From TrEMBL, chain A:
The gene is hyaB. Keywords: Cell membrane, Electron transport, Heme, Iron, Membrane, Metal-binding, Transmembrane, Transmembrane helix, Transport. One of its GO terms (cellular component) is plasma membrane. This is Ni/Fe-hydrogenase, b-type cytochrome subunit. It is a multi-pass membrane protein.
UniProtKB/TrEMBL annotation, chain B:
One of its GO terms (cellular component) is [Ni-Fe] hydrogenase complex. [3Fe-4S] cluster binds at residues 287, 306, 309. Residues 74-219 form the NADH:ubiquinone oxidoreductase-like 20kDa subunit domain. This is Ni/Fe hydrogenase. [4Fe-4S] cluster 1 binds at residues 74, 172, 206. Belongs to the [NiFe]/[NiFeSe] hydrogenase small subunit family. Its main location: periplasm. Its cofactor is [3Fe-4S] cluster; [4Fe-4S] cluster. [4Fe-4S] cluster 2 binds at residues 244, 247, 272, 278. Heterodimer of a large and a small subunit. Residues 239-322 form the Cytochrome-c3 hydrogenase C-terminal domain.
Length: 218, 374
């Protein structure tokens, strides 16, 4: 384990958007569940409990949207580990091999843990799916939000969504996709821990610090 | 009656009449008439100052002919118009303006009735107003609904196609409604879909609110044009606002006070029906302000959630009526999104927990840090 040095992998925008997303998703999931099935104990009609819960949902929703869009923009101009190419390894033969190797490691078939500086190709693919889930939440969320003002700009922008979904289908999709994100989060934190232990590259701390331990050539 | 006739240049007979005079003959005072005009300007979301203009316009109006067609319907919209506790001024106005043909209420029958309709279409082409109640079946050449041996589609094409304007009353005439519910065996559609060329105003609702019909007709008489409509062809004065935003239970929604089951204390206190499946948050109609039966009540006021009846295909898209969310398709009756979601989350946690245990005791599978890539 010689020749290790610290390599700057995750740039500031990658880390900042990651943690903003984590906080927003936590807030959105908790407030969303309460919006979907309010279990509230208020005695007075003068309270504004549901009002505040929805307010938090919408503020977090806007923050989340700005953060996701910023990360997508950064995937065009950031370093190679932030690039959009990291998310579509399945487009290259090399990437597909990487995915298979990682899968073999995860299913205990192989003992070779992945050795990559950025995302391993299986993780990259998973993030691709997660970004699709993010976009699903944003599109269905803003469409629901636009119901408030049928002549407003948001309604015009997202009117096409109502062609794809029925009203109830839209709500169900918004609700169900949350659970897919929750499942991903469980898997994701576990994998980060696993790779931290096995790769010994400091993945876990890398999303805070930006640095990973990387071996010098030769 | 205050009716007089005059021959126009085209030879058609046009009846000139004076609404307020007619109303007086029917025992409605000028004061009641002015009150009606004020209420109407409110329904049309016009400033109160418009009432005299409405009164004046109604005084000078030329009598347009109305024909009322019924297709695949339950006559509920006709009922809504006829069954008010007392005959209202609005009803009388419609009564006076109307009605050369109306299957449910006309005295004439058979050939005589059909001739009345044919005469209107022939002699007043482009000048009469058609009101349609009920959906139009398109499947199998339209055989599923025939009147006097002609298919609804055929009649609609002729009558609505030659009308000055068509008012589709109720959700069936507007969007197909209940007959169009999946699997829509008759291929039912609304008027604007069946007769694409016709100028149609949709007044959906199950039934429609008769006040909105009066307001639409009066809007036409006063301004000589149809009211501004939304993307679904519904007049904005009646369908421009969301039920949820005008609901008298809204304060309970914002506070977080909900009915949890029928007849519970919250229900008795009039709390919000959101958890009982109320579709007010996604339905556009003026029920909370206009109400029904002379502003007596409306569904949410009477303790039942809104079921979204003025939205297209509400029977398919707003159900289940008594739950907020539908079940996840492909799973059993009782599997809500949350149960399945928690299952997925728990499954993931279990799978990776087990994976973690195995990995923790697994030796010799570590890497030595990633290699610099070029
Ligand atoms: C990861 C992100 C998000 C999660 C986990 C989430 C979760 C949820 C959940 C579970 C509900 C309840 C659905 C129901 O049962 O009807 C909900 C409702 C809603 N969400 Fe989200 N949401 C997210 C993002 C967004 C975004 C980006 C918007 C955009 C404005 C948004 C807007 C809404 C609206 C408008 C509602 C309905 C609120 C109401 O009826 O008052 N959500 N959300
Ligand atoms: C305590 C919680 C979390 C930790 C410690 C953590 C850690 C990490 C680490 C180490 C990476 C980079 C590693 C790699 O690419 O293999 C990463 C990336 C990522 N994480 Fe997390 N994560 C957490 C929570 C979440 C949650 C809740 C979500 C979303 C549901 C999430 C979504 C993502 C995504 C989408 C990426 C790719 C980021 C990018 O390239 O922009 N993370 N996370
Ligand atoms: S009863 Fe229905 S329309 Fe009224 S506030 Fe509650 S959810 Fe909204």
């Amino acid at each position: 384990m010689a020749n290790l040095y610290e390599k700057y992998v995750w740039e500031v925008p990658v880390r900042v958007t990651h943690w903003i997303n984590v906080i927003c998703i936590a807030l959105l999931s908790i407030t969303g569940l309460l919006i979907g099935n309010p279990k509230l104990f208020t005695l007075s009609t003068s309270d504004y409990l549901m009002g505040w819960i929805r307010f938090v949902h919408f503020v977090a929703a806007y923050t989340f949207t700005v953060s996701v869009v910023s990360r997508l923009y950064w995937s065009l101009i950031g370093n190679r580990y932030a690039s959009w190419r990291e998310f579509v390894p399945f487009l290259t033969p090399e990437g597909r091999r990487g995915m298979l190797d990682t899968l073999r490691y995860y299913t205990f078939v192989s003992r070779k843990a992945p050795h990559v500086v950025g995302h391993n190709s299986l993780a990259g693919t998973a993030y691709f799916v997660v970004f699709l889930l993010y976009l699903t939440m944003i599109v269905t969320g803003f469409t629901l939000y636009s119901e408030r003002a049928p002549l407003g700009v948001t309604h015009k922008l997202f009117g096409w969504v109502m062609v794809l979904f029925t009203n109830q289908g839209l709500r169900l999709t918004h609700h169900m996709t949350m659970w897919f994100l929750v499942a991903f989060a469980i898997h994701h934190v576990y994998s980060a821990w696993l790779m931290d232990v096995k790769e010994k590259g400091g993945v876990m701390s890398s999303i805070f610090s930006g640095y990973k331990a990387v071996r010098k050539e030769g | 009656m205050g009716d007089s006739t005059r021959e126009t240049s085209t030879g058609a007979v046009e009846r000139i009449f004076n609404v307020s005079q007619l109303l007086e003959e029917k025992g409605v005072s000028r004061r009641d008439f002015m009150k009606f005009c004020t209420t109407l300007s409110a329904a049309l979301a016009l400033p109160a100052g418009f009432a005299p203009r409405i009164a004046q316009a109604l005084d000078e109006v030329k009598r347009p002919t109305l024909v009322w067609l019924e297709f695949q319907d339950c006559a509920g919209d006709t009922e809504a118009l006829l069954r008010a506790a007392n005959p209202t001024v609005g009803e009388l106005i419609l009564d006076i303006l109307s009605v050369d043909y109306h299957e449910t209420v006309m005295a004439a029958a058979g050939f005589q009735a059909e001739e009345a309709l044919a005469k209107v279409v022939r002699e007043q082409k482009g000048k009469y107003i058609a009101i349609v109640e009920g959906s139009i079946p398109m499947k199998d050449g339209g055989v599923y609904c025939c009147v006097a041996g002609r298919s609804a589609l055929d009649i609609a094409r002729e009558v609505c196609g030659n009308a000055l304007a068509t008012v589709a009353v109720g959700t069936c005439a507007s969007y197909g409604g209940l007959p169009a519910a999946r699997p829509n065996p008759t291929g039912a559609v609304g008027v604007s879909q069946a007769v694409p060329g016709a100028k149609v105003v949709n007044l959906p609702g199950c039934p429609l609110n008769a006040d909105n019909l009066t307001a639409t007709v009066v809007h036409y008489l006063v301004f000589n044009k149809l009211p501004a409509a939304d993307a679904l062809g519904r007049p904005l004065f009646a369908y421009g606002k969301r039920i949820h935003d005008n609901c008298e239970r809204r304060a309970h929604f914002d506070a977080g006070q909900y009915v949890e089951s029928w007849g519970d204390p919250a229900h008795a206190k009039g709390h919000c029906l959101y958890k009982m499946g109320c579709k007010g948050p996604e339905t556009y109609h003026n029920c909370p302000t206009q109400k029904f039966n002379e502003k007596t009540s409306w569904p949410v006021a009477s303790g039942h959630g809104c079921c979204g009846c003025s939205q297209p295909q509400f029977w398919d898209t707003m159900t289940p009526i008594y739950h907020r969310l539908p079940n996840v398709p492909g799973f059993g009756i009782e599997s809500s999104a949350d149960k399945i979601g928690m299952g997925i989350a728990a499954g993931t946690a279990l799978a990776f927990g087990a994976h973690g245990l195995v990995s923790a005791f697994r030796k010799g599978d570590s890497a030595e840090g990633a290699k610099e890539d070029r």
